[in-house]
Amino acid sequence: MGDKIGFIDESGDKSIHFTKDGVSTFFIVTAIILDEYSVDKTREQFVEIAAKHTRAPEIKSSAKAFRYFDKRIDFIKDISKLNFKIYSIIVDKREVFEDSGLQFRNIFYKYVNGLLDRELYDYYPYLKLISDNHGSEKFMDGFVNYVEKNHKQTELFRGPKFEFCDSKDEPLIQLADFIAGSLSRCYDPKKNNPRSSEILKILDKHILHLREWPENPRNKYSNIELEDEKFNKELVDFIFFRIKNFIHINAENPAIEIKNQLICLNYLVYRFKKDPHEYIYSDEIIDRIRVRNIHITKRIFSKEVIGNLRENKILITSSQSGYKIPCCRGDIIRFYNNYSSKVIPMIETLKKTDIVIKSATSGKINLLEEIDFDYIKRLTDIKK
Fold first, then answer.
1. Tens digit of pLDDT for each residue in 121-173?
2. What is the pTM of this model?
3. Which of 7, 141, 191, 328 is the most buried (most CB within 10 A)?
């Protein structure tokens, strides 16, 4: 498996007093992941792009040059041409600090450390991380301690590697800062812009997962008319209950098949929150699994990933347009129609084949009368 390097930075602060002016509502940790062999080239390309947009010696998302949204979008369009992946943990402090034990900073740090550790190393077992050493020492020191305590060096997991670096000296930490700060424009109501959705559209091909925590989708539906024909809240709440339960039960499961299912599920959830009516082609999901150097075909993906998730009572619908988490009656109808268009012709073919075989053998071969094919016989009888 090829070695990867992640450059980490944060957006927002850890203060629990998010209602105060100047205190962020969200805390975002972003890792920019690259192949080790491409780091020098990507760094050089980023520096060239940055020089086109600002004369500042260091790229900061909070810089005056990017307060104008058009300039931020132009810069994002240019950096989207680079070869990197994005993994972020996006913490809504309104949900965390109101009435939970996580209102205490040390507990909060530890929990987010665990999320970052578990999911980053799910994708990249051999990941080396480089973090800014200013402003985030407490968080990253806690993360280093957490990983070293919870990971034992094995043949699969060679042990964590960490470095701290001044962001002024490492442009790729500046890239992580800019991505994290731009994502805050998509989530934090204090920074939101009417055009914020453009950021996610431009960066979409780079995103492995935007891990929102707490994992609560209800606040993401404000732009959806809550009618049964367009959105069935009871259905969605049940599906997300099953998803959260599956993730919780399998979070520590080391099996490759389970890791693939979790990656698939996380991506479906992320895309659902962007647009609950959108279908996703299997190639997009398989690409996310392949970042772990796991190469699977569409047939194996359908059987071992989607099929096994469905076996665990997680409802994933499909159509000719791809896969999605269903949000309404129409999604279920399309799913049933998709299967009906395949199953019913198969039953018709079996009926015709049975007639031909019985005719050719004067009834000596009559498989549908045998007990092994009783279920199929009942299906063909229904179609008479």
1. 778 877 888 887 765 555 666 666 656 666 544 434 445 577 888 889 999 99
2. 0.79
3. 7
Helix, coil or strand: residue 228: coil
C-alpha to C-alpha distance for 187 and 75, rounded to whole angstroms: 19
Nearest-angstrom CA–CA distance, 312 and 303: 13
Residue that the structure tokens 């732009």 belong to: 223
CA 376 to each of CA 262, 307, 349, 368, 369: distance values in angstroms, whole numbers, following the listed order? 34, 21, 12, 7, 10
Contact 171, 47 (CB under 8 A): yes
d(CA 174, CA 66): 14
Tokens of 371: 């007990």
Distance separating alpha carbons of residues 288 and 290, to the nearest angstrom: 5
H helix runs in 84-232, sequence order: 93-96, 105-123, 137-150, 171-187, 197-203
Strand partners, 34: 5
Helix (H) / strand (E) element for 344: namely: helix 329-360
- The encoded tokens of residue 110 equal 């530890």
Q: Are the beta carbons of 24 and 141 closer than 8 angstroms?
A: no
